[in-house]
Structure formats: C-alpha cells, structure tokens
Amino acid sequence: MSHPDPGLVDVRPLADHPLTEAGSAALRMVAPGAATAGRFGLVEYRLGPRSPGAAPHYHQTFSESFYVLSGELTLYAGGRWQPCRPGDFALAHERGVHGFRNDSDEPASFLILFTPGIARESFFAEMAEMRRTGLRPSPEEMTAFYARHDQVMVEE
User: Of 55, 101, 125, 140, whose CA is between 20 and 30 Å from 25?
Assistant: First the structure.
C-alpha cells in the first residue's frame, strides 16, 4: 500500500498561534490564507460582554461565514440585528451586508471563515493594534484602511 506525502498535513498548535488580546476582544488566526494556499482563512474570535464588534459592512471579493461556539453573538443580517447561539451558522456572501457584536452579559466565542483566503489576517492584526493602543484614526484614515481591506461600511 502506498501513502500520499505525509507532508501534506499541517498542524497549527494553539501554543504556536495564541490568542491576541485587543481590548474587549481576542482573536487568533487559526488558518491564515497563506497557510491554506489562498483557499480559505479561519479566525477564532472572542468578544467580551456588551462589546461592539463590526458595524454593518460588506466585502466585494470574498464571503465571510460565522459559527458561534459559545455565548450569544448578535449578528446583523437581513437588515436587522439578531441573536445567534452556539451551533448557529451564518454565511455572508460577497456584497452581503453583515456585522456582529455582543449584546449579552456573557462572553461570546465564534469562528469566522472567509473564502477565498485573502490576506485578511493583516486587517485583523491592524484592528487589534488600534484597539490595543487606543489609536483613533481620522475618518479619512479609516476610509482608506477599509478600502485597502475590501470592507465597505454601510448605514444601518
């Protein structure tokens, strides 16, 4: 019996890719697009109680999926904010307006899957650094930041 190349399995231990704290949030790039040959990217996200997340927005070139692991995540979908609980899944297709926050008194933990696996980790890293340092870019700087990362903000 022959076996395919054993080097075709990548293991990314938590110890090698720990959570990065960013204010009331923490995240970790479980599988960045660079590790998946651009097929997908996977982010573990934790949001503290009563914490803002992402205001309503959309992406033109990739989809974003959400899978709730624990707590209650409030997701903007279908033009309204709605609660999502453990086991709930949502898929925001390209140009699908979505957002998330934690309106509950408990922490929420969820996965974000984006396809294709663009370099989304740079967006999350830059956002985490802004939250960690308290940096408040001007509206013009934020518009440029979002444009660089294919994130189009919309009014609720």
Answer: 140
Provide the Cα torsion 97, 149, 42, 136; round to 10°.
-90
Other beta carbons less than 10 A from residue 33's beta carbon: 21
Q: Which of 11-20, 85-94, 113-122, 137-146 has the highest mean pLDDT?
A: 85-94
Residues 6+ apart with CB under 8 A from 150: 59, 60, 61, 62, 118
- pLDDT tens column, 125-154: 888 788 778 888 888 999 999 999 999 999
DSSP state of 49: T
Alpha-carbon span 7 to 1, nearest angstrom: 18
Q: How long a stretch of residues is the chain?
A: 156
Neighbours of 2 (CB within 10 A): 3
Is 53 in contact with 102 (CB distance < 8 Å)? yes
